[in-house]
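FIELD: query
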Amino acid sequence: MAIDRRAFIRLGLGGLLLGPAMVMAGTGAGRQRLLSCRSDDSGGHFLSMVDVDGGRLLDVALPGRGHGLAVDPMQLRAAVFARRPGTFAWIVDLASGQVSHRIAAAPGRHFYGHGQFTADGARLLCSENDYASGSGVIGVYDAADSYRRVGELPSHGVGPHEIRLLADGRTLVIANGGIRTHPDLPRVKSNLASM
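FIELD: result
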């Protein structure tokens, strides 16, 4: 079975299907958008938004390979996270394509590629690693204060990956992957013997 470009995007983009919040992006009422990280043949890395017909609506060049995304439920912005063990998270205005904030990992931490806005959009929660101890943490960033890091919570495991808020808006579910990494050793799994 041959798969054309549009079918591929519909079936396998691997992005995040965005609903009503994207309608207000000024790109057409009632149209769904797909948001995903991608890399090109030249080694460039991007946050891209396409419509369901495969038309590219947005391309934001990233400083390294992106991985996960979090869409603010209250505003037209998304956080894009570096692939683990990455040290950047960017906030992108989805209407303009402008990067409004560049978040660097805190000293002694790296991002694990995922995050989640709180239900009110006031905080950004990021899966992170305390690479001295190997403990997973959830970094807490204040959206109203230029995404200043205001604290952290234990993930109660090693290698927190995906994190999601349940429908109650208060319960955070954390998928601890068990893989210990360090930004000086990209993609090296340093605890295979004890995982």
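FIELD: remark
The CA atoms of residues 1 and 57 lie 28 Å apart.
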